[in-house]
Amino acid sequence: MPANGETRRMKNWVFYIIFAAVIAAVLVIFHFISGRQFLDWSNVKGIISRSAYPCFIAWGFCFLFACGYTDMSIGGVVVLGSFASCILGNWFGLPGVIIGGLVVGLLLIFINFLIFTYSGIPSWIAGISLAMIYEALAFLLKISKGTKALISTSLAKEYRILGQLPWCLILLLIGFVIVYFIYNRTTVGLNIRALGGNKDVAEKLGINTKKTLLFVGLIAGILVGVSCVLQQSYAGQTTVKTGLTSINMIFQPLAIYLLAQIIRERINIVVCVPICAFILYSIFNLLTMLGVPSGTLQEAFLGAFIVIFGIIGSRKVKGVVK
Amino acid sequence: MSESILEIRGLNKHFGPTYANRNIDFTLGRGEVHGLLGENGSGKSTLLSQIAGLYRCDSGEMSVNGEKYDPHSPLDANARGISMVMQELGVIGSLPAGVNVFLGRTGQFSKGGIVDLGEMNRAAAAVFEKWELPMPRLGRLTEGMSIEERKMIELARALSIDPEILLLDEVTQSLSLNNRNRLYELIAKFRDMGRSVIVITHDIEEMVQITDVITVLRDGEVVGRVNTKDTDPDKLRMMMVGRNISGDYYRDDNVPECDGETVLEVRGLSVPGELEDVSFDVHAGEILGFCGLSDAGIHSVGKAVFGLTGAAGTVHFLPTDAYIKSAPQALANHMGYVPKDRDNEALMIHANIRDNSVLPSVNELKGPLGLLAPGKVSSLADGIVKRFSVKTTGIRQPMDALSGGNKQKVNLGRWLAKDLRLLILDCPTRGVDVGVKAAIYSLMKEAKKTGIAVILISDELTEVLGMADRLLVMKDGRVTREIRRDEDFTEQAVIGVMI
């Protein structure tokens, strides 16, 4: 017999409490493993600051994947957006940092979606082609006489406040509220999810699929734009490489999205993203403290963690209310 | 004759070189329930789709209430008071039931850009209550819901615009007896309110029971229009296929054959919330029927026996002394399963006939290195297409281009091409016409003769009564009664137990 509403609500609350308790317990274990350093406020601040930039990209993925598309060029867009943020930031201060990243991120992702929508090329193929173009463009800017000096200069320290607490946390909270409402409570959000659920049904029910896809470009563009601002504010400088290495930049946000996807049966995916980002960067942080070399070995740990989390999360739960 | 609400004159629609509708003249009266009858591929669904604004007409004219009607989209049709429940449309699994009811029109609940989900769910609940439809949990995602629940959401979606004309394409085929009766009541209520319904169903007896007028189509053309009270199922069958088809395609004997070698022994089968302690045996050459109302759990039996749900209890396949725990194990032990939800659970709908046909036979066809010989694969698919007379342009044609009946022929044919000992059929004649239905029953009889044990799960009582040797009636996940073919094998007796 199906559970009634009260029982369901009770079950959900039990799950939330257990979930929160497990996370708290894990963090305490991390604290002791790390020789009582992990939960130092300065360390926690570092984890939050580091989580902010990939969080916005992971929210962007929520919209992209919800409508059934993917965009492999986001790493390239972040590189170019970060350049713009850096150059304009050094010229015009904080407004330049914000406008530079936002405008480039929004413009390029929107252009990508114009191409996905009207060219008919599968988005992952078009995305890889665009990634190569954006990487080449970034490389040209890096070596060109006119722009080399501008790009090689780091963003001045006084304009990097958005990459640090409390500003990155404030941006995260604002971003969370906006993304939550757009994804769950607006017509465009529901239409985006309908499109990914079944494009034919969505079309037959009168949803304008092209317009909806362009909205995805707009929303994901703004989110990627914010992440350009945060990336530049956190790191101060952006590395440029070719050979599709910019795709590496989206691997961690992708891992956050995958983790969030696993627990979305129980918790709304928009809420899952910052939780998963925090969990993920906590693990990286612990591994660094334990002396595990960053890069390959840490990524191996990350892969194993996703698999284990996936096994636990894939145990189907029926009767979930969202 | 009643005043007309919809007039169609000289309507044409073609897809490439193929005519789907040719010079269709059609009149729908106010307060009339009008049936559209025809074989799979006769153009019925295309005609409804044009009325509903899903397809544009190539030529011809339509008018509603005497005014020109030329819908560009379903929203245009909705604006003129016309809505449709499609045969294979479905709902969006990643969205809650309440949102699915108003999908495409969620803007009406938007305040300051934010959709009021509470108000939307209340409005959806009001639709379910007004039309006395079983209400699902409106906040729950539809991806975990049964095909029947999803169909009810689609029905609520169509009714949510308060239509003057309701178009129903093969809706009853997805419903169990109780919900089917609810739909009949809804149709009667609609008629009483002076509104009109166009119904497509392959169940001719049902069509005769619920309609006032029937238009018969063949190869895209109207071949006749009759008042229902002036005709009978046999006359309609003849009009439909252009030759005489006997109505008694079911078994005409009342001798149960359930004493053969036991093939399957099921004990204490339980799935939380679906099945409770279900036990039964199936014998070689026996057709064991399962029937029950919508929540009875009959469809869970097929899945559980085939090892798809990880049920508690034992499924003992005696010929190989195997205890079935998973679908690959069932497959390796000469068992086959044809699920109810053809498009989502049985077929790779975007793949071609060839790839779909070979799927259950990969192990038998693969060579010593595990490779499949393309020639063998094509030959198997060709064999299925020929043996079951699948109407297709070739084995490379995608499944989604086939009509419902032809999809089912491939779906069933690929299992019958194997050396089976047990076949589980869940609503095998859902959405197929009378000709295909007769062919499927004939195949079941043939399978029975060759000693294959068949588990027949069906929402159509006449089907299980017509074909089964023994019938297990289920209620609330339990088997409540077993009736043999030589006992009180009547609809009244079974309904009495079901309810």
Word description of this protein:
The complex is a heterodimer of chains A (322) and B (499). With 322 residues, chain A is mostly helical. Chain A is 76% helix and 0% strand. The two termini of chain A are 20 Å apart. Residues 316-322 of chain A have low confidence and may be disordered. Helix content of chain B is 33%, strand content 26%. Chain B has 18 helices and 22 strands. In chain B, a hairpin with a 2-residue loop joins strand 1 (4-15) and strand 2. The two termini of chain B are 39 Å apart. The mean pLDDT of chain B is 88. The A-B interface holds A 1-2, 66, 181, 184-187, 190-191, 193-194, 196-198, 200-202, 204-207, 318-322 and B 54, 73-75, 78, 86, 89-96, 99, 103-107, 110, 113-115, 117, 137, 139-141, 144, 157, 273.
How would you sum up this structure in a few lines?
The complex is a heterodimer of chains A (322) and B (499). Chain A has 322 residues and is mostly helical.
Topology (elements, then pairings):
The complex is a heterodimer of chains A (322) and B (499).
Chain A: H1 5-33, H2 41-66, H3 74-92, H4 94-119, H5 123-143, H6 145-152, H7 167-185, H8 187-197, H9 199-204, H10 209-235, H11 251-263, H12 269-289, H13 296-313
Helix pairs in contact in A: 1-12, 2-7, 2-10, 2-11, 2-12, 3-4, 3-5, 3-10, 4-10, 7-8, 8-10, 11-12, 11-13
Chain B: E1 4-15, E2 18-29, E3 33-37, H1 44-51, E4 59-64, E5 67-68, H2 74-79, E6 82-85, H3 97-101, E7 110-111, E8 114-115, H4 117-130, H5 147-159, E9 165-169, H6 177-192, E10 196-200, H7 204-210, E11 213-218, E12 221-227, H8 233-241, E13 262-271, E14 275-283, E15 287-292, H9 298-305, E16 312-317, E17 322-323, H10 327-332, E18 335-338, H11 342-346, H12 353-358, H13 362-365, H14 374-387, H15 404-416, E19 422-426, H16 434-449, E20 453-457, H17 461-467, E21 470-475, E22 478-484, H18 491-498
Parallel strand pairs in B: 3-10, 3-11, 6-9, 9-10, 15-20, 15-21, 18-19, 19-20
Antiparallel strand pairs in B: 1-2, 1-4, 4-5, 7-8, 11-12, 13-14, 13-16, 16-17, 21-22
Helix pairs in contact in B: 14-15, 15-16
